[in-house]
Amino acid sequence: MPNRLPRTVLAFTAAALLLAGCADSTPGTSPSSSEPASSPASSAATSPAAATSLSVELMADGEAVTDSWTLECDGANPVGESGAPDPAAACSALAEGGTGLFAEPGSDVACTMQYGGPQRATVSGTVDGKAVEAEFAASDGCQISRWEALSGLLGPATAAM
Predict the structure, then answer these.
(1) Rounded to the nearest 10 degrees, how much is the dihedral formed by the CA atoms of 123, 98, 74, 122?
(2) Phi, psi of 122 (to 5 degrees)
(3) How many whole angstroms separate alpha carbon 36 and alpha carbon 57?
(4) Going by C-beta distance under 8 Å and a sequence separation of 6 or more, which residues neighbour residue 97?
């Protein structure tokens, strides 16, 4: 057990450095759409009080959906009930990072070859009125960093195992 703390600190430090490197990838865009993200139909579907409305499906084994929940935010504040692990942290992260949190790392970003487990999650809905659809995994350092940036919405990357 004495070696666990240094490894944990090292892992979180590496994840933070990777996240900083992954942050350069097209912030403010939705990776799933080449059309303008805001349209009258998508704006009408989301109330002004909940400009952020997301649905999450978690696949702990990487295959079958094992859990699902929704999250609605008014800015950095959760609205209503949510099954998200930490709705307040999720809304705060989404208010600060916006749709950039859903972007894949750029092709020029080097990702560590580490495996965090088979878990996957899909997220769809709107962030600040803009459509998003993304898949998250723990398949390498960049993907783990993406997951951890939204840990309030998805839970810790390695906890789903």
Answers:
(1) 0
(2) -115, 140
(3) 25
(4) 27, 149
